[in-house]
Amino acid sequence: MEAASARYAARDRFGSFSEPAQSPLQRYIQNAVDPQNFEPNLALCLEIADLINSKKGNAPREAAVAIVGYINHRNPNVSLLALTLLDICVKNCGYPFHLQVSTKEFLNELVRRFPERPPLRPTRVQLKILEAIEEWRQTICQTSRYKEDLGFIRDMHRLLSYKGYMFPEVRREDAAVLNPSDNLKSAEEMEEEERAAQSAKLQELIRRGSPEDLQEANRLMKVMAGYDTRHKTDYRAKAAEEVSKIQQKAKLLEERLQNFKAGDSISDGDVYEELANSLQSAQPKIQKMCEEESDDQEAVAKLFEINDSIHRTIERYKLIKKGDLEAASKIPKGTLGTSTGVVKNADNELSLIDFGGESEQSTNGGPSTQQDVKPLEDDLLGLSFQDQSYGQGGGIALGFGANTSA
Fold it and tell me: Which of 31, 131, 276, 337 could bond to 306 as cystine, CB 3.0-4.6 Å?
């Protein structure tokens, strides 16, 4: 009897708040889900998300293990607070945390208290969990750049549907934050984001430790170290694509403003405002890209001209929104980078890529590639491969074969 009690206590390892948390992150999480809180402490939840993002390394897994433990707490208020914290972390922590949420262990623990047959009236906790899984399936499992690594979320969704569970409808505005944004990213930002994702995936592959995972980890380490250039991303080319999208938005807004007539109106939240806000948010990024491209004077001149053109388009938009059509008509039409001597494609879009021999030498693994490679050890510093274990799972669980999903 005592042994059985001990086993149940181990499964409900966060059932008591008397045990001190082991790390600052766990202390923050414990405070966020304290049963004395009558409502979620959103400021603290966002601080936890920021801490996960800043610590990186093992922090996403440490947080996921702690949060899902509180979700299975005997006190439903603690469970609901933990689910709110989970939602905020998923929406603010990006791929490293999404990777942990999509593991078999996490998902099995998440539905540990779900009975084999759906109850006639699901509890609030069960409804919130079903809503979260449905939201993840509709967003990150379809739109994430790394959606192929999130397959177990889709598997759990199918398993629960097969068991007869009904998923609540997800409001589009609540899930929109999980979809990729149109914000312009510089080549440096994209490279940093991808390296963080690679480091998170490498740690997870090594933690699993199956032969297939270790083989994939070996391949990924070669990519991260710069030895395998076949899968190397051309961040400069991707940045050029991002600028091209901004050009198209500026062109569309300029055309709409040129066709604006007296009697027409601009209202809050319409397509005019959406385009203008997107262009405004892109301007600081374009200026940063000018700094990164400082060695390429032609590219810098093109970017400056695009930025100046966007500024004029935004000023025209503001005047037209105020109703001052006469002043708006005096602003010169933006050139969107058409007057510089830089080579343009058929649609007059920016091309920051030099297709000459120097670029080919770099992509083929020449000396310049090796000089720019950041040592792999820098990315592995702070990573911990010590396992934070989940519970044993309940009646509904995904199988524990090779931890891969089609």
Answer: 337
